[in-house]
């Protein structure tokens, strides 16, 4: 397991994989009981994992309850993140959900109680609520940092312009800035390359990437069965509904056959290599439900794809960036003329070709 700081504007040290714990609990349609969750947690820790990501809504609070027992042995060894916005069992409704100051403060109190700790390393707004002003969210997170209840704040599932505004305004006002953003990213969903990843690199904040297997799509299992998230949750999933996604799954399965590695390992190995090419810290959130699933994620730590294999997957999954990115590329070529392919900016040596 490699380690990094969560962006270059903070010294918060995290493992390159974060353990997502939405499967810790049995109150949803799928999940792991406490004993199975403990095995997953312990195995992750034994592999060197230190970063744990949960939310008050996961398994109606069970995820945080389970983690209280798991973390009690050495709480300060782990970087613990949780989220607010959607509430949990008995805490839903107009006054107990969303991103208002009231909701944030009360949600944090409940989360700290369930986790059996007096602070969080990172506290996320889980999603925009469409109502609360961005300044209210960041000001409240700043107050919680100053009060010692959390060490850092983050924004999950927010647009790049919202995150950029939050970071810039906080820095300009001398407040504790948002240090990271969280969004879906995988070979099946590289939309983050349009704005989110460039924004994170530009502002030197961290990025946490969830659903690295596209909800199971990249394992190829949905070609032979609907078992999994497709039947249990019917959410947070990429479907094989475009020609490009079919080409991506074909490429993953082809390399899997060539290397005798599971398709999941191939997909995570590509993502790990892609993260290493970023100019800021990109951390992959893995969310295993079983020890076998955890083993597939961890196996990717020892896999190096060949340049040809990486490029094949990269080409098959390349996103269409659209406007204004396409026109910006055309403008660069027009301005630089025949030197466009050989012209390198001073900072571009940091990124592998």
Automatic annotation (TrEMBL):
InterPro entries: AKR_Detox_Biosynth, NAD(P)_OxRdtase_dom_sf, NADP_OxRdtase_dom. Residues 18-316 form the NADP-dependent oxidoreductase domain. Keywords: Oxidoreductase. It comes from the Bacteria. Gene3D superfamilies: NADP-dependent oxidoreductase domain. This is Aldo/keto reductase.
